[in-house]
Each structure stands twice: as structure tokens, then as C-alpha cells.
Write a structure and sequence with these properties.
This protein has 374 residues and is of the alpha+beta class. It has 2 domains: 221 residues, no CATH class; 138 residues, no CATH class. It is built from 12 helices and 10 strands. The strands form 3 sheets. A 6-stranded antiparallel sheet has the order 3-4-5-1-6-7, sandwiched between helices. Helix 6 packs across helix 11 and helix 7 runs antiparallel to helix 8.
Length: 374
């Protein structure tokens, strides 16, 4: 029997994404064109990476048939099926031999969601045999190891790109609940014909809560196209933003990541006052909105300075004062998350429109152009 010429690689991870109106129907995103554009633009030449850059460099875009991400949203209400996660994995991945030891997903709560990042290649891959994997000293073929890490690099790049777009499109507010046992799990499956290989590859990057408004899916597509066109540039402020929303286990230190992301949109020696003023000019339409935003930025910077200089630490449930009212410190994080997302979108829009630019940057001219009509 002829060997299959198609290899499918999937990364199955837990997610904390919900859909508007608490629907649980799967949401599918086709990222094939975006992935091929990233590879065409030699994304591995960036100064930083989200996985294994050599793997990206060695990926031939002509071998890629498709790249998708499917989201199974969280469960909120209705008939309880405690085996829903296992059933989804079974539908997507088929029977998984027990010797791979990747079935920890069976212990996930039925209430959470599931994300499947998938790539399909027009090439055959010879997988390690059961005998090789279950031997006292497992034996891996060096060619297979190279291909596996190549596929994994692509999956991680796709994930970072997709998460960046979702977080910018839907900067969701939630509640910070830290736990001693956070869910950090997942596995990769490679399948070629009847051959199969699985390995544990854990992450909690998809566990930062996002409310996906599917009624605005056309907006998501616009954002996917826009970010994909500049993804190969050194978008350090966007990378820093992803650090701030890397999981559900948030602390007030992540507020610093948000501020570093915001400051990364400006030159090295830009004052905090100029950053605040330009945010007000770019985001506010009324004096009331501007004063409200300035109060938030002043508080965020004060917390940042206290933490950075060792004056004090902040718990997410500490109270701070904003405009004369006591609020939870974590509220500052959630509000700043939206502010920085808006500024990043404006910076990306500017980058797309200016062919000579190669990074996300605001300057004095932007401030002047917005402040004066002529």
C-alpha cells in the first residue's frame, strides 16, 4: 500500500475563550494565507522568536496545504457533559495509543474550552515505531526530530500571531484568581496515514480569558490580514503585550509589561508625560474622557514606579484610589490592557500605511498632526 503523502500536525491546548451569548459552537479560523505570507516575508529574521526560528526557516510554504485554528468555547449552562473535552479530542485526533502518555486532558474541567492549532503538509513523514518509543532507551531518527521541531515551530508561531490578533480585537476584562495548580497542559499529534506520534507540549497561553464576538468576525479577518502583513517586523511592543496576557495567572507585575509595551511605541528618551498626553490626544474626544484617562495613567505609572523601585508591592486585591474612589488594584491592569490595545492598533495601522517604517513608533509629528489642523 502506498504511503500517504499528507501529514497533519495538531497542537491541542486548554483555553478559556468564550463566545457571545454563551454559545459553544466551534469557531474555525483559516490562517493558511497568513502563514504563507509570514514565511514569504522571512519571519525568522526577526530579533526575537516564538519558538524555533530555524524550523521556520526550513519550512517550505509550497508544502503547506492548510493552517487552521479551531476554538471550542467554554461551557456555561445547559445539559452537563463531563466528558465533553475527551469527546472533542476524540473527534479531532481519533484513537491515541496509551503509550504516548498524553491523556491528561481527560482531567480538565468540562467547563473550560479547547483550542486546536492545525497544519497540514503535502509530504509524508516516517514516525517512530512503538518499539522505538517504548524501549528502555527510546530511539528517535534524527530526520524525524528535525521535522517534528519544524512543525512545532510553525504551530507556536501561528499561536502567537493568532493570540496577538484576538487580544487586540477583544481586550476582555475579567477577574484575577491565582491558583496553586494552574492548568498548563497540551499535546502535539502528528499523523501520516496510519502512522501517529504524540508528545506532551504544555502551555497556558490560551488560558487568558477572551470573549470572542463572532458577530464581528469580519473585523477579526481585517485584523488578521493587517497584522500578518507586518508580523515579520520587530514588533517588540506587541511581543511585550503578549507577555502581559500570557496566561490566567496574572499578578500586578504584568501591569509593568503593559506599560513597557506602551512605552515601546515611543523613542528611547520619551518622557512619561509625553506618553500620557499623546494617549489622551489619540484616544479621547472630550475633556471629560481625557481627564479620566490621565487619572488612570497617573495611577498606573505610580504603581509601576512603586514596584520597579522597591517602594512596595501590590496584590491584585489591594485597594488603590482612582479619582477619589477606592478600586481594586487589578482594575488598573484591566483598564490599561484596553488602553494599550487601542494604542497598539493605532501604531500597527500607521505601520501598514507607511512603507518606509519597520517598527511600531509614534513621534512628535503624530502629536502635532492630531493637535493642529493646519
Amino acid at each position: 500500500m502506498a504511503r500517504s503523502k499528507t501529514t497533519t500536525t495538531k497542537w491541542v491546548v486548554p483555553c478559556y475563550f468564550s463566545q457571545e451569548n454563551f454559545r459553544t459552537t466551534p469557531i474555525l479560523f483559516d490562517l493558511t494565507a497568513h502563514l504563507k505570507l509570514m514565511l514569504k516575508n522571512e519571519v525568522w529574521e526577526r530579533k526575537y522568536n516564538y519558538g524555533f526560528n530555524t524550523g521556520l526557516k526550513n519550512t517550505d510554504p509550497t508544502h503547506i496545504r492548510k493552517a487552521t485554528i479551531k476554538i471550542y468555547p467554554r461551557f456555561f449552562s445547559g445539559i452537563v457533559n463531563e466528558k465533553r473535552i475527551s469527546e472533542f479530542v476524540g473527534e479531532e485526533c481519533g484513537n491515541i495509543p496509551t503509550w504516548f502518555d498524553v491523556d491528561s486532558y481527560k482531567k480538565w474541567s468540562y467547563q473550560i474550552g479547547l483550542a486546536i492549532i492545525e497544519t497540514e503538509y503535502d509530504q509524508s513523514v516516517k514516525m517512530p515505531s512503538k518499539a522505538n518509543l517504548t524501549a528502555r532507551f527510546p530511539n528517535y531518527d534524527v530526520d524525524f526530530i528535525g521535522i517534528y521541531h519544524q512543525h512545532l515551530a510553525v504551530l507556536k508561531e501561528l499561536s502567537a500571531f493568532f493570540l496577538a490578533v484576538l487580544h487586540l480585537s477583544f481586550p476582555t476584562h475579567s477577574i484575577i484568581i491565582r491558583t496553586e495548580n494552574p492548568l498548563n497542559d497540551g499535546f502535539v499529534q502528528m499523523r501520516c496515514g496510519r502512522q501517529i506520534y504524540c508528545a506532551k507540549v504544555a502551555t497556558n497561553n490560551f488560558m487568558h480569558e477572551i470573549l470572542i464576538e463572532t458577530s464581528k468576525k469580519s473585523n477579526i479577518e481585517v485584523n488578521l490580514n493587517g497584522v500578518a502583513s507586518v508580523w515579520h517586523f520587530d514588533l517588540w511592543p506587541l511581543k511585550r503585550y503578549l507577555n502581559a496576557v500570557e496566561s490566567d495567572q496574572i499578578s500586578m507585575d504584568n501591569l509593568l509589561d503593559l506599560i513597557y509595551s506602551l512605552e515601546g511605541l515611543y523613542g528611547k528618551n520619551t518622557s512619561s508625560d509625553f506618553v500620557k498626553i499623546s494617549c489622551m490626544v489619540m484616544m479621547c474626544n472630550t475633556r471629560k474622557d481625557a481627564r479620566k484617562l490621565k487619572a488612570l495613567l497617573d495611577l498606573a505609572y505610580r504603581i509601576r514606579n512603586d514596584i520597579a523601585h522597591g517602594e512596595r508591592s501590590y496584590d491584585t486585591y489591594d485597594y488603590v484610589t482612582l479619582d477619589g474612589k477606592e478600586i481594586l488594584a487589578q482594575t488598573v491592569y484591566w483598564e490599561m490592557k484596553t488602553v494599550v490595545a487601542c494604542m497598539l492598533i493605532k501604531a500597527i495601522s500607521k505601520l501598514i500605511k507607511n512603507e518606509d517604517m519597520r517598527n511600531l513608533r509614534f513621534n512628535t509629528d503624530d502629536f502635532i498632526n492630531l493637535s493642529f489642523k493646519a
